[in-house]
Amino acid sequence: MKAVIFDLDGTLINSLEDIAICANQVLKELNHDRHEIQDYKKFVGDGALFLMQNALPKQCSAQEIEFGFQRFKEVYDLNIHKNTKPYEGIYDLLNKLEALNVKKGILSNKPHKFTLKYTQNLFNDYIFDEVHGQKKGILKKPDPTMAIQIAKNLNIPCEKIFYVGDTATDIKTAQNANMKSVGVLWGFRTKKELEEQGADFIVETPLELWELLKTHFTK
Q1: How far apart are CA 197 and CA 174, in angstroms?
Q2: How confident is the model at residue 38 (pLDDT cuts 50, 70, 90)?
Q3: How far apart are CA 193 and CA 169, in angstroms?
Q4: Which of 140, 169, 133, 163 is nearest to 151 (CA)?
Q5: In angstroms, rounded to a whole number, what is the distance separating the alpha carbons of residues 113 and 43?
Q6: CA pair distance 88, 59, nearest whole angstrom
Q7: What distance in Å separates the CA atoms of residue 40 and residue 42, rounded to the nearest whole number?
Q8: Which residues, at least 6 apart from 118, have a Cβ–Cβ distance to it below 8 Å?
Q9: Are 203 and 170 in contact (CB under 8 A)?
């Protein structure tokens, strides 16, 4: 059996603009300075609460951060999908993986509701055997609990699964779950970050990712 688990934001989809627009709206409502879209590359990756903790001024109270977090989810829900699209080459990659009968999963720190919405709206033509976002009561990545559970659900040993993502958090998740880690360079973070975290593989394009996976899956 063959399997690959994908991160969502910065890996399958480019959602940075929508995230920035919605977070900046919350900052405006709270009378705080807004950030440039590219600044949000540093803020994302560890869930919406982490996002707002980074976007809000450091002197903000825990109560204001919690309010900003809840308000962001409300605003984001209203604006979902406006600018967010899969990266170029992702659909082709998924087509090729399906032709090889590769099991596919998504594991994201995006709230579970939004993870499901994006999967249903942007990847409805593809089979994802497991789709999980951040859920209450379950530790977020890089905790390996959900990644290991996905492996159990797929009935495939962790060491035979590739975990693909764009941040150090994703590489740590793979390492903590004893999965093969693949860092992608088209996402939100740098090659240096992925190298420093010790990614097993680093790829520049979805086509390069396909060549890597094909080599292992057709042995």
Answers
A1: 11
A2: very high
A3: 10
A4: 163
A5: 20
A6: 39
A7: 5
A8: 8, 13, 15, 80, 81, 84, 110
A9: no
Q: Can you tell me the distance from the alpha carbon of 45 to that of 142, in angstroms, rounded to the nearest whole number? A: 10
Mean pLDDT of the chain: 94
β-strands 130-134, 85-86: how paired? unpaired
CA 66 to chain centroid: 22
pLDDT bin (cut points 50, 70, 90) of residue 80 is low
pTM reported for the whole predicted model: 0.91
**Could you report the per-residue pLDDT of 87-140, keeping only the tens digit for each?**
999 999 999 999 999 999 999 999 898 899 999 999 999 999 999 999 989 999
Question: What phi, psi does 180 have (nearest 5°)?
Answer: -75, 130
Closest among 163, 165, 191, 187 to 177, alpha carbons compared: 163
CA 110/CA 44 separation, integer angstroms: 9
Cβ neighbours, 10 Å, residue 34: 15
Distance of CA 105 to the CA centre of its chain: 11
List of residues 6+ apart from 108 with CB closer than 8 A: 7, 8, 9, 115, 132, 133, 134
